[in-house]
């Protein structure tokens, strides 16, 4: 059980307590949502090292910018947006470095008799196709198609109009369909 589980205050109350100077309020708030926020960082960057770095930058930004929080959205939506923005900033900074992440094969159980080569090949193909999308399209596609957010929720979290999310998803999906079209032939 974590500190966040023991504290029954709302996220908004914890953020207000942090702003008022309560030393553990921010840590309690982050502990409550750490797993979700890290998952967002992983999905957005598709690189564990970048995800961890962007996550730390996001937490620092959220800690320092807490006084700028406007209660127009839930605290978790505000934190989500800060994490996504930190990830997109990191992706932009790394744009000149063309590295290909090596997939983690420790997710494959050694005792599994089923040949998972096809699953791994598919995951690599989809991951590479997502990596080839511009960062703004990738963020929209991941928010709507991977996380299952509505267009309105994705727009709120990414801080753009719903029409922008729709067009980014449409362009991203079209490019993904082109890049992954060869997989249809094998089905």
Report on this model:
Residues 29-95 form the RNA polymerase sigma-70 region domain. Residues 126-176 form the RNA polymerase sigma factor 70 region 4 type domain. It comes from Gordonia asplenii. Keywords: DNA-binding, Sigma factor, Transcription, Transcription regulation. There is one protein chain. By secondary structure, the protein is mainly α. It has helices spanning 3-6, 11-19, 25-45, 48-65, 75-93, 117-132, 135-146, 151-158, 162-180, 182-185. It has two domains: 1-100, Rna Polymerase Sigma Factor, Chain: A; 102-187, Arc Repressor Mutant, subunit A (Orthogonal Bundle). The mean pLDDT is 82.
Q: How is the topology of this model organized?
A:
Blueprint: H1 3-6, H2 11-19, H3 25-45, H4 48-65, H5 75-93, H6 117-132, H7 135-146, H8 151-158, H9 162-180, H10 182-185
Helix pairs in contact: 2-3, 3-4, 3-5, 4-5, 6-9, 7-8, 7-9, 8-9
């Amino acid at each position: 059980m974590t500190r966040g589980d023991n504290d029954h205050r709302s996220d908004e109350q914890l953020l207000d307590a942090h702003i008022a100077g309560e030393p553990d309020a921010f840590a309690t708030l982050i502990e409550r949502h750490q797993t979700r926020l890290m998952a967002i960082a992983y999905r957005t960057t598709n690189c564990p090292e970048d995800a961890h770095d962007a996550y730390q930058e996001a937490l620092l930004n959220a800690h320092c910018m807490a006084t700028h929080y406007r209660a127009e959205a839930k605290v978790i939506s505000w934190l989500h947006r800060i994490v996504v923005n930190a990830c997109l900033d990191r992706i932009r900074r790394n744009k000149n470095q063309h590295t290909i992440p090596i997939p983690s094969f420790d997710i494959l159980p050694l005792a599994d008799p089923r040949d998972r080569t096809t699953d791994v090949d598919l995951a690599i193909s989809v991951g590479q196709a997502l990596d080839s999308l511009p960062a703004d399209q990738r963020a929209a596609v991941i928010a709507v198609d991977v996380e299952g957010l509505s267009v309105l929720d994705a727009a709120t979290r990414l801080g753009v109009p719903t029409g922008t999310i729709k067009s980014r998803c449409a362009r991203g999906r079209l490019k993904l369909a082109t890049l992954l079209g060869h997989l249809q032939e094998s089905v």
